[in-house]
């Protein structure tokens, strides 16, 4: 049972991080669009690059949660 509780904590922490990263991505889209409409060229490119980096972080977190879930389910079935 302790393993399931630990998995729940890890999942909730990852979910909070994903939510935070998505909010940052939305802010980057808004800032990039605003800069594009003002005629700036550098800011939208930087915002797009940062957004791609955040996408990679979100994908990594998703992979981590899936691996943790598989590991926990494997331990529960053995018990």
Overview of the molecule:
This protein is mainly α. The chain has one domain (about 1-79). Helices cover about 90% and strands about 0% of the residues. The chain has two helices and no strands. The protein has helices spanning about 1-35, 40-79. Helix 1 (about 1-35) packs antiparallel against helix 2 (about 40-79). The longest helix has about 35 residues, at about 40-79. The radius of gyration is 18 Å and the shape is rod-shaped.
Brief rundown of the structure:
The chain contains 2 helices and no strands.
Number of extended strands: 0
Counting DSSP H or I runs of 4 or more residues, the number of helices is 2
Number of domains: 1
Structural class: mainly alpha
Distance between the termini: 10 Å
Report the principal-axis shape. rod-shaped
Amount of beta strand: under 5%
Radius of gyration: 18 Å
Overall mean confidence score, pLDDT: 87
Largest sheet geometry: none
Low-confidence stretches: none
Please give the structural blueprint.
Blueprint lengths: L1 H36 L4 H37 L1
Throw out a few tags for this protein.
79 residues; 2 helices; 92% helix; 0% strand
């Amino acid at each position: 049972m302790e393993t399931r509780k630990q998995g729940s904590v890890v999942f909730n922490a990852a979910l909070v991080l994903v939510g935070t990263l998505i909010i940052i991505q939305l802010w980057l889209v808004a800032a990039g669009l605003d800069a594009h409409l003002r005629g700036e060229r550098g800011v939208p490119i930087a915002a797009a690059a940062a957004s791609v980096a955040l996408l990679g972080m979100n994908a990594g977190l998703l992979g981590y949660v899936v691996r943790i879930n598989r590991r926990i389910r494997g331990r529960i079935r053995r018990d």
